[in-house]
Amino acid sequence: MKWINIFLSLMFVCFAVLQYNDPDPYIWIPIYLLPAFLCWQASKGKYDTSLYVLSMGICIVYGIYLFFDKNGVLSWAKEHASESLVNSMKAEKPWIEESREFLGLLIVLIVLVINYIFGRKQLRLASKP
After folding, report:
1. Domain of 25, in residue numbers
2. Helix (H, G, I), strand (E, B), or coil: what is residue 92?
3. Alpha-carbon torsion 102, 104, 106, 112, what sign?
4. pLDDT tens, 22-62?
5. Which of 15, 48, 93, 103: CA 20 to 30 A from 40?
6. Contact 102, 72 (CB under 8 A)
7. Is pLDDT at 65 greater than 60 in this prediction?
8. What's the total number of domains in the chain?
């Protein structure tokens, strides 16, 4: 799990760096740097469960917003016939941008949940006499 977390940490740092030209980098750079930090800490065997819970909560709340927003995932799926998200990396349509952002949050959330479960097991094992 150590090397996986090192890889994920580097991956999230790269994701954060790629956000510098995003319309809202002040939101997305921290969203990707926080799991990068948590994965780095996990690679060292350190788990701050309260920070995981906070991060997962942020992802869930913002993900719900992106899903139901007027230009969100539902709009992309229903009103725009699930138009390709990868034809062009330039997101000229808001439903494309928000659907991609939702998928980014989903990736973050999956990694956080797996690390949270694994971290709780590690902490429980370490606290047993």
Report:
1. 2-127
2. coil
3. negative
4. 888 999 999 999 999 999 999 998 989 899 999 999 999 99
5. 103
6. yes
7. yes
8. 1
Give the pTM.
Answer: 0.83
Span between the terminal Cα atoms of the chain, in Å: 24
- Cα-based torsion angle of the residue sequence 97, 104, 84, 82 in order, rounded to the nearest 10 degrees: -90
CA 87 vs. chain centroid, Å, equals 22
Q: Residue 95 and residue 49: Cα distance in Å, rounded?
A: 33
Amino acid at 69: D
What is the C-alpha separation between 60 and 58, in angstroms, rounded? 6
Across the chain, what does the average pLDDT equal? 85
How far is C-alpha 55 from the geometric centre of its chain's CA atoms? 9
Structure tokens at 27: 């939101």
Cβ-proximal residues to 10 (8 Å cutoff; 6+ apart), any chain: 36
For 24, 90, 99, the CA distances from 93, given in Å and listed in that order, are 15, 9, 10
C-alpha to C-alpha distance for 35 and 27, rounded to whole angstroms: 14
Cβ pair 5, 115 in contact under 8 A: yes
